[in-house]
Amino acid sequence: MKQRKVWLIQFGELKTFFRRLFVVALFIVAFLSIFLTRIDSLVVSAVDKVIIDMTGPMMQVIEFPARVIHRAYTYFYDISHIYTDNQQLRNENKQMMILQNKVRTLEVENQLLSRLLNYIPPADATFVSAQIIAESGDNFTHLLLVYIGDEPVEKGQIVMGEESVIGRVDTVGNRYAKIILITDINSKIPVIIERTRARGILSGNNTSMPQLIFTRSNADIKAGDLIVSSGAGGMFPAGLPIGFVHTVHSDGTVDVEPIADISRLEYVRIVDYGLSRDSEFLAEFTAGNNDGQ
Amino acid sequence: MDNKKFEQIPVFLRHLLPLFSAVLFVLFFFMPVNSVELNIFRPSIGVICVYYWRLNRPALFGWFSAFFIGFLIDIYSSSPLGINTFLMLCLVGATGWLSHYFQTSSFGVRWFIFALSALAYTLIKWLFLMLYFAHWLPLAEVAVGYFSTVMFYPLIAAINFWLAQKFIPPENINEQ
After folding, report:
1. Handedness of CA A228, A229, A231, A236 (dihedral sign)
2. Which residue in A has a C-alpha nearest to residue B38's C-alpha?
3. Does B79 reside within a domain?
4. Is residue B174 in a domain?
5. Within a domain: B176
6. Nearest CB neighbour to B141, from listed A27, A178, A207
7. Which residues does residue B156 pair with via DSSP β-bridges, in sequence order?
8. In contact, B36 and B42? CB cutoff 8 Å
9. Is the ipTM beyond the 0.90 threshold?
């Protein structure tokens, strides 16, 4: 009887010891994850994909009633604004007709000049439409979770709203993908100012207005200038519209207002310009050249 | 459905309710709201759930539950994987210690202690992320998020209280 009591005490102590060990292990795993994320570990991205695929369907179920309510609200809002929208569209249509004639002339001119220069145009882009099912839940991050189904999507592909860049694909699961928005602190895009061709980097800062950094101190930048992707680095093709210069501060910092109203999007387009394959080819080509030397 | 029908749910499933409800709350607050203004007011719902359950039902919301909630938030946000997990574990440790002193206190006191805990959580996260990214993070939006979190506490606490009363067997109350 006494031996059994001693054994029970020892078992209890062992249980407490293992419980403490478990807590310490959880702390270590959490702490190590931070550093593994820093070095972009394969383990971390694999776990990321698994959790997103596991919780994605649950997220879709939760978000469905909210989507129905939002659609009903949008429907009645649109009906109430139908007259003003119609007037605006008529005016836009008149302007578009004038532009269409100009575009036709320019297209013919472009084809003739391209033939003269033996210019090889890049391959046409393909795109996948994806439904937004979640947004980042705090003020520290700016990202979206989208449902992609069985469509082929790769990390690094460009994500566009109705007409401009809103971010890039960060993680791809089996049916869901995580998108880093241009306003997120992790986002850095090489850009140029369309009017002056001055180069810079559009850097997210977790506010609704990312900043233009690494521009020349004497660069001519004015409020209202259009910011487009520069194509440097091979991640984004050149010339994609991103935003307009909102404010040029006296200390040289430049606030950029994204063209797309990200918060009002329901669907996004994930565009494949084939740049990831080109990047792989260029990397192999560069590595081959270095070996040869 | 009356209480008798709830009682037919296996006890082990009802014991998972704190974790399950916390997961649902966290996912719910990641839902797109289609508004810039509302986005700024998103509360840190995970902090509320972890604090509430750890303070009121510590036996049913342990270290692993907090680890899972933190991990889920890390996955759904673009902050470095592990930061929310680590802070949630710290929050569970701190709340477990605080529960010895404030478990029987009035709601107002527990709300005030929550406000302090959430402030510590937010500030540590803010400082850590600034160091991690080597970039200044705007404090104004973080502050708005923090106040929103504090203001949301009574609502989430009331829902959690109702869930606990309805589903969790009374013999498990305050056990540890």
Report:
1. negative
2. A263
3. yes
4. no
5. no
6. A207
7. none
8. no
9. no
